[in-house]
Design a protein that fits this description.
25% of the residues lie in helices and 24% in strands. By secondary structure, it is of the alpha+beta class. A hairpin with a 2-residue loop joins strand 9 (151-154) and strand 10.
């Protein structure tokens, strides 16, 4: 991420995608800025293999593990607010293929309905005896990279960045992802 003006920054790289741009736009539109701020994403540009997102620059301090522990109650409220945003179709917030550590890197995975998600996961289970039943789990907005490096604090304002892996999934997916770090 590079700051280009007082108010704008550009995130760029091989893994910056149109899906991340759309996810960020949806999150910014749906989430209450009094609880968590999402930088406005203005434009996505793809040049060869590099994606560029032009967005608001966020001034503040990126959290580390110790400062995140000190803000645990506030961060819990942020995560709770995010999870209150529901959906009926699993997948990326803005549509298109899912991304992140839970999904294959070189395969475009999309779901039409919750049963598709369940089937996709169960087909990849290491044991046919251990399968998931997701029917009792509602779909919630999940950031799926709720990590101190993606949280910027400026005074009392909490900003959440990097929406590349975000989607509508059962809330427990938020916890599964930490097994990969």
């Amino acid at each position: 991420v590079v700051r280009v003006t007082d108010g704008l920054a550009v995130k760029f790289g091989h893994f910056v995608t149109i899906q991340e741009f759309r996810n960020q736009q949806v999150a910014q539109r749906l989430l209450n800025a009094d609880i968590v701020n999402v930088p406005t994403a203005y434009r996505f540009v793809q040049k060869e293999e590099i994606g560029y997102i032009v967005m608001d620059y966020v001034d503040g301090n990126t959290l580390d593990l110790m400062s995140a522990k000190n803000l645990a109650e506030e961060l819990g409220k942020v995560l709770g607010h995010i999870h209150q945003q529901g959906a009926t179709k699993p997948g990326s917030l803005g549509g298109g293929p899912v991304s992140g550590v839970l999904w294959p890197e070189h395969e475009e995975v999309e779901f039409s309905e919750p049963d598709d998600l369940q089937l996709w996961l169960n087909l990849r289970s290491p044991s046919p005896v251990h399968t998931l039943n997701l029917r009792r789990h509602t779909l919630s907005m999940c950031h799926l990279d709720f990590n101190p490096r993606n949280i910027i604090v400026n005074g009392n304002c909490i900003h959440l960045v990097d929406w590349s892996a975000a989607g509508y999934f059962p809330r427990f997916f938020e916890h599964i992802v930490y097994r990969f770090f």
